[in-house]
């Protein structure tokens, strides 16, 4: 054994981790939860960037030949975004609504889309 590392009795383990059992686990759990929420929000933002790129491509004439494909990808992306918000409970606490990029009035999503029904907050 090296000097200073006596582990013959159970109290010796407390030397290295004094915080064990003193309520600090809650603080670390909150930090981890905040970190995971931050990662989820960053991923949601990347999905919103992809969505706006698809929306922009849908409106550009050079993509006319694949408009149906882009439209399908846009609908799929919208569905993924809505499911992601629901599963990870990413709601804006001040407005009690999902955290998403504001949809422009010309995005052809008027709520009649069967694949993307509006999310109801309960």
From TrEMBL:
It comes from the Bacteria. Residues 1-11 have a biased composition (Basic residues). Residues 1-33, 98-122 are annotated as: Disordered. This is Uncharacterized protein.
């Amino acid at each position: 054994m090296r000097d200073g590392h006596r582990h013959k009795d159970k109290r010796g383990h407390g030397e290295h981790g004094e915080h064990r059992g003193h309520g600090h686990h809650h603080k670390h759990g909150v930090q981890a939860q905040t970190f995971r929420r931050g990662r989820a929000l960053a991923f949601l933002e990347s999905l919103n960037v992809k969505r706006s790129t698809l929306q922009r491509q849908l409106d550009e004439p050079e993509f006319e030949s694949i408009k149906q494909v882009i439209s399908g990808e846009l609908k799929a992306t919208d569905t993924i975004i809505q499911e992601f918000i629901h599963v990870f409970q990413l709601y804006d606490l001040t407005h009690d609504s999902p955290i998403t990029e504001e949809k422009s009035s010309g995005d052809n999503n008027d709520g009649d889309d069967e694949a993307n029904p509006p999310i109801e907050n309960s």
